[in-house]
Amino acid sequence: MKILKKIGLGIVILLLLIGIVSLFFSTQKEVSRSTVIHAPIENVFKNVNAMGNWKKWGGPWQEEGMDYSKVIQKTLGTTTGVGSKLIYNQGKGDGSVEIIESDLNKRIKTLISFEDGGFANGTWLFNEDNNKTMVTWTVKVNLGYNPLKRIMGNLMMESKVGSVFEKGLVNLKKISE
What is the pTM of this model? Predict the structure, then answer.
C-alpha cells in the first residue's frame, strides 16, 4: 500500500511539474523560412496560388520516404486563389490547406486544418528584385493550453517544420526557375 501511495504521489508531482513548466511556454508558435528564386515573381506566385500546382513541388510533404503525390488526395474549389483547397492524408486521417487570401504577386494566406482537428495559419510573402523573387513561407499555430502540446510544440516545431519548409522551398525553386 505504501508503494502505491508513493507511485501516486510521484505521478501527481510529475503532472504538477509539467503544468508549471508549460506556463513558461507560449501558446503560439511561428516558424518561417525564406529563399531567393531566380525567376520572375509571376512564375513563383502561380506555383503556390493554385493548389493543383502543389503536387509539382510537394508542398510541406517532403519527409523521408513520403510520396507526396499520394499524400495529396485531391483539390477542391476554385483552381487558383481564394477558395483553392487541397485535401491530404498522411495516414492519420484527412487534413486540408485552403487559400483564404490572395493578393496577386504579393501575399497568400492559407488555413491549414490538421487530422486531429487542430488548425494553423500560413502566410506566403513574395518580393521581386531584378528578376529574382524572395519567398517567405510562415506558419503560425495556436498550441492551446494543453501543457504537453505547449512544451512539445515550442521545443520541436522549429526544427521539424523548419526542415520541411526548407525542402519544400528547394522544390519550389526547382520548378519555378
Answer: 0.82
